[in-house]
C-alpha cells in the first residue's frame, strides 16, 4: 500500500476521474481523506467508508461494525493464503508422512493397487483429487510429525496444518470473535 503523502495520493486529490479511481484501486493505494469524499460520488452507496486514524485493531473493529460482519472461529482459516480457495482436502498424518517420504526420495511410490486405503493423495505423482500437485517443496520433513491432519488446498496444492502459527493467529484475532464486548 502507498502512504498518504505519496505522489499518487497528491495527484489523486486534485482530480477525481474514473480513470484515476481505477488506477488507485489497481495500485492498492491509500486514498487521502479529501479524495474519499469525491470518490463516494463515483461508487455505490455503502461501498466506500472512511476509517478513522487509530490503531489497526480499532480500524478492523470499525469496519466489522460498519459492514455488520459476524466472524466465527472457523472463518479465520477458511481460505487459502495463496489462491484464496475455500476447499481443502484433509490428509491424515500417516499419508502425509508417506507423501513427504516419496517427495524427498526416502520411499518409493506404491505400485498401483497397493496404495493405502482412504488416502486422498495420488502417491504415484503426488497430486490431490483433480490432479492438483501438492506443494511439498517448502515443507521441512519434520512437519509430518507435528500434526494429526493436514489441510491441502484443492485449488493450488498449498499444505496447511494447525501448528504454532495457527495458535498465534487464532489468539491474535480472537478479539474479532467476541463482538458483544466491543460495541455496546
Short description:
The chain is mainly alpha-helical and 184 residues long. 35% of the residues lie in helices and 7% in strands. It has a 3-stranded antiparallel β-sheet with strand order 1-2-3.
Topology:
Layout: H1 7-14, H2 18-27, H3 33-39, H4 56-66, H5 73-76, E1 88-92, H6 93-103, E2 149-153, E3 159-161, H7 164-172, H8 174-177
Antiparallel strand pairs: 1-2, 2-3
Strand-pairing-aware structural class: mainly alpha
Topology pattern, helix = H, strand = E = HHHHHEHEEHH
Specify Rg, calculated over alpha carbons.
Answer: 23 Å
Q: Strand content of the residues, in percent?
A: 5-15%
Biggest sheet strand order reads 1-2-3
List how many beta strands DSSP finds.
3
Q: What does this protein structure show overall?
A:
The protein has 184 residues and is mainly alpha-helical. Among the domains are: 7-50, no CATH class; 88-167, no CATH class. It contains eight helices and three strands. Strands 1-2-3 form a three-stranded antiparallel β-sheet. A hairpin with a 5-residue loop joins strand 2 and strand 3. The longest helix is centred in the first third of the chain and has 11 residues, at 56-66. The two termini are 32 Å apart.
Amino acid at each position: 500500500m502507498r502512504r498518504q503523502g505519496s505522489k499518487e495520493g497528491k495527484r489523486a486529490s486534485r482530480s477525481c476521474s474514473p480513470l484515476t479511481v481505477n488506477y488507485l484501486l489497481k495500485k492498492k493505494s491509500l486514498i487521502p481523506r479529501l479524495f474519499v469524499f469525491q470518490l463516494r460520488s463515483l461508487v455505490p452507496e455503502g461501498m466506500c467508508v472512511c476509517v478513522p486514524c487509530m490503531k489497526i485493531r480499532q480500524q478492523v473493529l470499525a469496519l466489522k461494525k460498519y459492514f455488520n460482519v459476524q466472524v466465527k472461529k472457523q472463518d479465520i482459516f477458511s481460505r487459502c493464503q495463496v489462491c484464496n480457495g475455500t476447499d481443502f482436502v484433509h490428509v491424515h498424518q500417516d499419508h502425509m508422512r508417506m507423501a513427504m517420504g516419496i517427495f524427498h526420495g526416502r520411499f518409493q511410490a506404491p505400485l498401483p493397487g497397493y496404495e493405502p486405503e482412504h488416502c486422498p493423495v495420488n502417491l504415484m505423482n503426488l497430486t490431490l483429487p483433480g490432479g492438483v500437485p501438492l506443494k511439498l517443496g517448502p515443507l521441512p520433513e519434520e512437519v509430518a510429525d507435528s500434526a494429526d491432519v493436514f489441510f491441502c488446498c484443492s485449488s493450488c496444492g498449498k499444505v496447511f496444518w494447525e501448528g504454532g502459527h495457527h495458535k498465534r493467529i487464532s489468539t491474535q484475532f480472537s478479539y474479532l470473535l467476541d463482538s458483544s464486548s466491543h460495541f455496546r
